[in-house]
Amino acid sequence: MIFNILNKLFEKFKLSTPPAALKSSINYWRHLIFPHLRVVIFLFIVLAYLPTLYVTIRFQNWYIVALSTVMLLWFVYLIFHQNLKYQFKVYGFLGMLYLLGIGGIILNGPIGSGWLWFFTFPLFASILLDFEKVLIAIILNTLTLITLGFFLYFDMLADFHISEYSLFDWITNSFNFICLNFITAISVSFLMTGLGSTLVEEKKAKSALRLEKAKLSIAKEKAEEVNKLKSNFLDNISHEIRTPINGILGVNQIIQMEYPADPHLQHYTEMIENSGKRLLKTLNHIIEMARAHAEIPEMKLEELNPSQMIQSITPHIQLLAQQKNLQLETKLQAKSSLVIADRKVFHQIISHLLENAVKFTEKGSVKITTSLVHSLRGPSEISIKVQDTGIGISHDKLERIFIPFEQEENGTKKEFEGPGLGLSVVKKYTEIFGGSIRVVSEKGFGSLFEIKLPVFQKLSKVEIK
Prior knowledge:
Elements lengths: L1 H12 L12 H33 L3 H19 L5 H23 L5 H15 L2 H23 L13 H92 L4 H30 L8 E4 L1 H18 L3 E6 L6 E4 H17 L5 E9 L7 E8 L33 H11 L3 E6 L5 E8 L11
Parallel strand pairs: 2-4
Antiparallel strand pairs: 1-3, 4-5, 5-7, 6-7
Helix pairs in contact: 1-2, 2-3, 3-4, 4-5, 5-6, 5-7, 6-7, 7-8, 8-11, 9-10, 10-11
């Protein structure tokens, strides 16, 4: 109930909204703090006024009755008059504290609360005003105490309780009071100044952050638009290229069927077929690379069994190996482990690695194995290794083979055909599935490519990078 009353008072006495220019500055917070201070002081004054009024009337101390009543009415005026400016209310509030302090010291002497009000005058000034005005408040307190000491020395205040002080006691109390008042008010003022500097820096940082965020948002929108245009362009160009190539290959197939007895014509049509298929394969690689490097590739993620997927791929690779008299070996150990991947893309990854192994191997074998790798620091992984006895890769070329269009041999005189896009696509898709790829190779002794993918576990989230 008390808190509800206080909240209603805060709403009643709240000042008008601070100007927008003051926001995130110390003056803005002073503007918001002041109504709360007034409410707290108002409650304190009301609670102190009633017993003070009773005692002072009983002892017929009419000066204190008059001072207390006038200050209470003045404070009520400051609170309820909504059209007064902020600065006027602050100076009026501080002036009331100053007068209550002087009046209390003069009229009550050592037994009153005048010293407390006198102490709060510079203290509240340090909260509500800047440093220069705090110094003025401290100097005003000092001059006031010196003046009152002068009056004491000449017995000019003999009719009031302040005369109970001896000159020595007055000087001692005044000196201690000024020192304590100075230290407290200056400390609070420095604290408020530091807070103001922090708020200003925070405002600048927030403005800079908003500006950077706006720039990033614009850049992101432009990048998304470019990606969309690139995707549309690739789809269109793919259609425009595939259609005539398929038409050429179709007509070429008809010629092969119509003239099977002409060896020269069959030789030329075979060249056309091989060139057309190579061109289609290169086009597919370019499109896959572009999609893999897009910001958000379109995929259908599902639980896959790598061993079963590899078993479905090997018959096609077996035919390619037999054409070159190579032996294809499979050793699938992690038969029950699952990964999260796109079925089509996973098929592509394994096919790229196996086709590359067969392409770059003239004699010997190609081997693919799967195994489960346990880790103490993270989830278990499935290791998929493709090993061949082919030409191998030079150590200085290992870091570049995953870069698009890079091969160990570049230029028009290279021995093996292909645009050099397969491994870059494999690496990108593997990383998208949260995995990694590495290669170990030696020139003339073959290569080993290893892919590691996190094992899927129920109730766990798979991170798509």
